[in-house]
Amino acid sequence: MFFDTPAFDLFLFQLINQHAHVDWLNGLMRLLSSKTALFLILAPVAAILVRRLGRRQLVLFLILLAGMGLTDLTTSMVKDSIQRVRPLNSLPNTHLVEDGEWIQRPPDFVQTKTAGSSYPSAHASNSMCLVVLAMLLWPRMRPGLRTALTALPFLVGYSRIYLGKHFPSDVLAGWLFGAVVATLVWLAWATAQRLLRPGPE
Question: Model's pTM, two decimal places?
Answer without folding.
Answer: 0.90
